[in-house]
Structures are given as C-alpha cells and as structure tokens.
C-alpha cells in the first residue's frame, strides 16, 4: 500500500532527537529551528517528559471520558496558574483544528447564530468550520463552503464594525499573530476595539492560540500583550511537545451541558501526562523568560544580516523577510548547514520556530550559516 501523497517531503529521515537537535539515519545532526512546526516547546526528548509519559503508559495509558480523570483537573489548575487566565473552564481534544472546531461550534450553540468573521491570510485548520474560516480557497472543499464566513483585512476595525453590526455573527476567530499567513500582528487599539465590538454585538471572541500559545511568544498567550479577555481560547501545538493534544479555555458566561461537546481520545491520561510535564518544565526552567531573552538576542543579531527587509513576529515565533523567495536558501540551510527552518504562505519569509530551550550559541550558528548563504546571492 502506498501513502496518500499530500506532503511535499524533504529527503531526510529523523530517527532520534535531543533538545534542539534532530538526528537522521546517517547520524547527521540537524539544528531544529522549526520545532516540527512550532510543536516542540520544552525540547525533544526532555528527560522529565520522557519519564512522565513512560510512567503513565506503564500504569494507565488511556481510559475514556466516562470516568473520573483527576489528571484533567490538575492540568486545568496548572494552565490557570501559569497563564494567569483565571476562571476559565477547560475542554480537551486532540489537535488545533479540533480545538477551533469546538470553539466555533460552542459559540454557535451559545448565541444560536451561524456566521463567522475571520481575517485575510488566516489559518485555523482543516476541519469543517475551521477550514471554512481559513483564508485559502485551495483547501476548502465544496462540502465546507456551506459555512457562512466573511473575511476582512487584519487591522480594519471599520470593516469589522460593518459586519458585526448586522447582528448575525456568531464568532470572530483570530490569530493574534498570524502563523502560516506570515507573522502579521495588528495594534493593541485594534485588538481592544475588536473585543469591544464583539461584546457590543453579542459576538463571541475566539483567540486562536494554537501556534502562539503555551509560551511561544514569551507570554503564555500572545493576546495577553494587548490586555484583552477572549471568550474562548484555542490551544494545541506546544501543549504536548509533540504528543497530540489540544484544548479550549472557555469563559464561564458560556454554559456547559451534558453532551454539548465530546471526544473519545481527548484529554486521555497519556496526553495529560505529556502536557503536565510541559507545564512543569516551562515553569521550572523559566522557558518563557528564556524565550524573551533569546528573542531579543536573535533580533539584535539578525539586524546585521545583509539583504534583510524586516524581522516579523514576537518571542520565538519569528520571521525574516527578504525581497526574494527564500526556498533555495531554506534548502541550502538544511542540506549544506544542517539547520531546519520554516516557510510561510508568503514565499519571501523564512520562519524561526525553535524549541523554547534554545540558547545564544544556537542563534550564532544559524546567523553565521544564513550570512554565508546571503553572501552568495
Ligand atoms: C494558528 C493555527 N490554528 C490551527 C492550526 C491547526 O492545527 P492542527 O494542524 O493541529 O489541526 C494551526 C496549524 O498550523 C495553526 O497554526
């Protein structure tokens, strides 16, 4: 049986990984500034993570959501403490798309509306409502196109106002810093205005923190910089350091009832163990502080790069923008310098999404390699 061919693959086969390095079948060592697409938060194979998951799988790996699972309660308490998002309630699932799907569904149950407002260049996942709210017609199948979605430009508060004042919008869904779209972020005035318009018009505010959450920007959530309180916050990627887990934080104005949401695998014991160890390590190793420090260092070093147009993003969710496509440079970084980086929808943007354990010496290695490549252009 062959594989359904949907991924353009680099010809590299990782077989092991440790902290910020990945090793392939030839034992070649790669510096991982991609983190498997912003997923690796506390570093590959962190010893506490390995121990916690190993212990858990050898005692109880899984049981369904029909029994008591104190690990989910512990996870909710630890997320509350570390994020400072008091009083929200937690629902667990398995991925980013699923988190957004549940967020949108819940908003629709809450206010009995069905229209979504989303933003140009957004990415929210590939399931039904999540993909419809994603600004990429190529991945929206006719079956998804039945959803009613309006797209407006990020930062255009007047356009948001015109749409919301019609009174039929169930939810606004927004990445505070756009990931795949290319690391654009609007102003605090915009996010606060958006939040006020949502409140005034009975629309729920969904912050998609799937990529930017769990410490990646140096704050626990990216929206926190703007002093707003979303109605629903979706999370995934960094939450499990590679173990599939997602979730939504739900403001208590939205009421639960039996059967409203549900999942077989979501919040299972093994997934909770993974996420609990992520939170422990984030706290004990001060990784959000490290994220801020290394981000400052990276930006100061990157400013000296030749041919650089701009530095985008925050924390360790960064992008280097050039006046030309970066595909060739990215390939050379991998095959000549053994450094993984990321790309974006915008062909001129090189994305940097390393584990939050990264140190200055790793930044130096990358800057040197990139300089060499830029000098040949
Ligand atoms: C902001 C954002 N939302 C949602 C998703 C979808 O997450 P998943 O691939 O886990 O379904 C992604 C994935 O890249 C993302 O970046």
State mean pLDDT (0 to 100 scale). Answer: 97
Write down how many β-strands occur, each being a DSSP E stretch of 2 or more residues: 14
Weakly predicted, low-confidence segments? none
Shape summary: globular
Strand percentage lies at 15-25%
Helix content: 25-40%
| Strand line-up in the sheet with most strands | 4-10-9-8-7-5-6
Provide the structure class.
alpha/beta
Distance between the termini: 43 Å
Largest sheet entry: 7 strands, mixed
SSE ordering: EEEHHHEHEHEHEHEEEHHEEHEEH
Unique ligands: pyridoxal-5'-phosphate
Radius of gyration: 21 Å
Helix count? Answer: 11
Topology:
Elements: E1 14-18, E2 21-24, E3 29-32, H1 35-38, H2 47-59, H3 70-83, E4 89-93, H4 96-111, E5 115-119, H5 128-132, E6 148-152, H6 157-164, E7 169-174, H7 188-201, E8 204-208, E9 232-235, E10 246-250, H8 269-284, H9 287-302, E11 308-314, E12 317-322, H10 327-335, E13 339-340, E14 349-352, H11 360-375
Parallel strand pairs: 3-13, 5-6, 5-7, 7-8, 8-9
Antiparallel strand pairs: 1-2, 2-3, 4-10, 9-10, 11-12, 12-14
Helix pairs in contact: 2-8, 3-8, 6-7, 9-11
The structure holds pyridoxal-5'-phosphate.
Structure description:
The structure is a single chain. With 377 residues, the protein is an alpha/beta fold. 35% of the residues lie in helices and 18% in strands. The longest helix has 16 residues, at 96-111. The mean pLDDT is 97. Pyridoxal-5'-phosphate binds at residues 95-97, 100, 123-125, 175, 179-180, 208, 210-211, 236.
């Amino acid at each position: 049986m062959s594989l359904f061919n949907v991924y353009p693959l680099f010809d590299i086969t990782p077989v092991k990984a440790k902290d910020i390095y990945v090793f392939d079948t030839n034992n070649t060592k790669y510096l991982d500034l991609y983190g498997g697409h912003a997923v690796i938060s506390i570093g590959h194979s962190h010893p506490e993570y390995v121990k916690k998951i190993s212990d858990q799988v050898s005692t109880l790996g899984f049981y369904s959501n029909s029994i008591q699972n104190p690990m989910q309660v512990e996870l909710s308490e630890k997320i509350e403490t570390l994020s400072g998002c008091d009083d929200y309630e937690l629902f667990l699932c398995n991925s980013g798309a699923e988190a957004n799907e549940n967020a949108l569904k819940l908003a629709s149950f809450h206010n009995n509306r069905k229209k979504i407002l989303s933003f140009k260049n957004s990415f929210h996942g590939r399931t039904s409502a999540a993909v419809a709210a994603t600004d990429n017609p190529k991945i929206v199948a006719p079956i998804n196109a039945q959803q009613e979605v309006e797209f407006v430009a990020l930062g255009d508060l007047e356009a948001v106002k015109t749409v919301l004042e019609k009174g039929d919008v169930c939810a606004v869904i927004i990445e505070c810093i756009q990931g795949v779209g290319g690391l654009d972020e609007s102003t605090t005035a915009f996010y606060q205005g958006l939040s006020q318009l949502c409140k005034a018009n009975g629309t729920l505010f969904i912050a998609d923190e799937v990529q930017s959450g769990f410490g990646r920007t140096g704050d626990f959530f990216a929206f926190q910089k703007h002093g707003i309180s979303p109605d629903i916050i979706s999370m995934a990627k960094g939450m499990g350091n590679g173990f599939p887990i997602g979730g939504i934080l739900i403001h208590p104005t939205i009421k639960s009832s039996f059967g409203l949401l549900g999942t077989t695998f979501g919040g299972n014991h093994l997934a909770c163990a993974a996420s609990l160890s992520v939170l422990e390590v984030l706290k004990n190793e001060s990784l959000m502080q490290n994220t801020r420090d290394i981000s400052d260092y990276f930006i100061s070093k990157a400013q000296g790069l030749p041919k650089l147009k701009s530095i985008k993003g925050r924390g360790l969710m960064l992008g280097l923008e050039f006046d030309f496509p970066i595909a060739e440079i990215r390939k050379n970084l991998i095959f000549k310098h053994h450094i993984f980086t990321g790309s974006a929808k915008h062909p001129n943007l090189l994305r940097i999404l390393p584990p939050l354990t990264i140190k200055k010496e790793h930044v130096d290695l990358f800057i040197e390699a990139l300089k060499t490549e830029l000098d040949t252009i």
